[in-house]
From TrEMBL:
This is Glucose-6-phosphate isomerase. Belongs to the GPI family. Pathway: Carbohydrate biosynthesis; gluconeogenesis; Carbohydrate degradation; glycolysis; D-glyceraldehyde 3-phosphate and glycerone phosphate from D-glucose: step 2/4. Gene3D superfamilies: 1.10.1390.10, Glucose-6-phosphate isomerase like protein, domain 1. It catalyses: alpha-D-glucose 6-phosphate = beta-D-fructose 6-phosphate. PROSITE patterns: P_GLUCOSE_ISOMERASE_1 (PS00765), P_GLUCOSE_ISOMERASE_2 (PS00174), P_GLUCOSE_ISOMERASE_3 (PS51463).
Amino acid sequence: MSVLTSLPEWKELSKIAESVKSAHMRDWFASDGERAEKMSLSACGIYLDYSKNRVNEAALSSLFDLARACNIETIRTNMFEGEQINSTEGRAVLHTALRNFSDRPVMVDGKDVMPEVHATLEKMKGFTESIHSGEHKGYTGKPIKHIVAIGIGGSFLGPKIMTEALKPHTVDAVKVHFVANVDGCHIHDVLSGLNFEETLVVMSSKSFTTQETLQNTLTAKDWFLKSGGTQQDIAKHFVAVSSNVKAATDFGISEDNIFPMWDWVGGRYSLWSAIGLPISLALGFDNFKALLEGAFEMDTHFTTAPLEENMPVLLALLGVWYRNFFDAQSHVLLPYYHYLRGLPAYVQQLDMESNGKEVTQAGDSVDYPTGPIIWGSEGTNGQHSFHQLIHQGSGIIPADFMLPLNVPNQDDTHHAMLASNCFGQTQALMQGKSFDACYADLDGKGLDDAERKRLAAHKTMPGNKPSNTFLFDSLTPKTLGALVAMYEHKVFVQGVIWNLNSFDQWGVELGKVLGNQVLAGIQGEASKDDFDASTQQLIAKFRAANAPK
Ligand code: F6P
């Protein structure tokens, strides 16, 4: 038995869960008129209604006991103070330093890193302004009008999704295009419409070893040279964001054009670093800074609010409750805001690459479920696609609904409909529709009783499906920063409770190695005996279909 499942707090939760499972949220709302108000929380401009969750006071109290038993407060302090909590790579985890607007130094290996964090922000600010003002010109003297941001994973999702979410705040000076996949369709689609005289490539790769990003940048460089640019002009049209300065300069990026990153910032936690340069270019540096300020406010809330009033802690515990005591396999994010449609994909990497693990810090296999599958899409679209399963499928899928109370260029009719769908869905998930109500609805339809009962069974909505609802006045850069930091800290708290190292990603390494071996196979540079029979035949099919004509 693991340390976690041996805890008395864990055993108490198991007992409480059994009693809660026989309760229906409908009845809790009926018996406590103050439930909704009591189970709401505000922080950093975000309002959370968590009353449509399958928890009562006993469950909540016991969940907070579990958090304390897992030393969440101590480990939280360790993270913010630069302890090497990334225990398999011997690194600190300090994405919070990137948005540290306090005067507090942050020490890494005995050195305060804040001066270099501030210097990098200044470099980003100056570069952004030089591009927007037209001071930075291309090799034929034209101002830069298009940015091609190349990266993948945390070097792509943050910049792209934050820029998309804040579209109402974009500047006119430049248009930012994002490329991630090594599928040539993407980079060629983007480049084919651009004039390289007025185009700048931002190549983002913390390791500077990621195949997709290197290949896409090589293709862009090749396109630049074929468009009339020379090797000497590269410096005007290519900049890099990386912690691997040597590899970047070896690649041909001039050192002045490299924005630094540090190994104490994980890729999926890096949008606050120079990885966010495309965000600054798209929105202006001040809006990028506001994003950081919002995250800093959430950091302050996370480190100072009592656990019972701590939004990331509460969300983490609710996730543990469903994952470990209700056998929930996934968690769905439903942003009822078109510009925030990318958030599920962002949180997918953040959560699943952090807690998609089955080995504890000590290297023992877990005897409990860990990170859930994270998925979702914008509302109301999901209602016409997968909400059927959330309402009537077997098991539960805890849901995060989120809605800005105001949107840019608001059409009141559209916005009222959006809100009514958002709230209506959470109500339907919670209260459902009983068999008796469905049976009554079928009265007078000319059905015999057996058919009436059969159809009523199909139409019954069990309800008791949990959801959180987040509201915010409008999605400003600051609010978005707080929202993303909230999810970062939720993931951190769950990783502590599950006793995982949330900050490495060994699971992606084998695929990268084998991918390169298969590439050699496809290019005829490896023995087919290097591969299993299935991979051999797949390679053979590909080679046959792409044999020189
Ligand atoms: O998926 C593995 C991973 O290392 C992610 O953690 C990271 O965000 C992405 O690949 C890109 O890595 P890099 O920024 O080093 O190119």
